[in-house]
Amino acid sequence: MYNNLLILFAIVTIINSIPTIVINQDDPVYYELECVNSSGKWIKEYNECEYIKKDWCKERGGVFDECASACRHNKESQMCIMVCVPVCRLK
Fold first, then answer.
1. Cα separation values, 90 from 17, 40, 44, 73, 86, Å
2. How far apart are CA 89 and CA 22, in angstroms?
3. Phi, psi of 89 (to 5 degrees)
4. DSSP 18
5. Is residue 35 within 8 Å of 52, Cβ to Cβ?
6. What is the pLDDT of residue 30?
7. Are 4 and 11 in contact (CB under 8 A)?
8. Residues 6+ apart with CB under 8 A from 61
9. Nearest CA to 51 among 59, 61, 41, 60?
């Protein structure tokens, strides 16, 4: 009985010592997780979430472009097919 209590105490102590992961809104990872969890595509280099809705962007203080160029970051391309991509640019 005493051994079981000691084991239980050890387990509880170990679990309580594991740091809790908290991500705040100032962390770029926050927006990445929010984007992906909302079925968007995160572009880390530019802090952009593609294929997301305007309301989602507005709630997070982003700048929404409903028809951004699919080639907006590919300056070296000789050809680009004009396709509208909804994009939210976040700070």
1. 34, 13, 10, 16, 13
2. 23
3. -95, 125
4. S
5. yes
6. 85
7. no
8. 90, 91
9. 41
Give the whole-angstrom CA distance, residue 79 versus residue 34: 32
Q: What is the pLDDT of residue 21?
A: 56
Distance CA 26, CA 88 (A): 16
Q: Is 62 exposed, middle or buried (0-12, 13-18, 19+ CB in 10 A)?
A: buried
Within 8 A by CB and 6+ apart from 9, the residues are none
Report mean pLDDT in 10-residue bins for the chain, 91 residues. Answer: 69 64 67 93 94 95 94 80 92 81
Spatial separation of the C-alpha atoms in residues 67 and 46, rounded to whole Å: 17
pLDDT of residue 77: 67
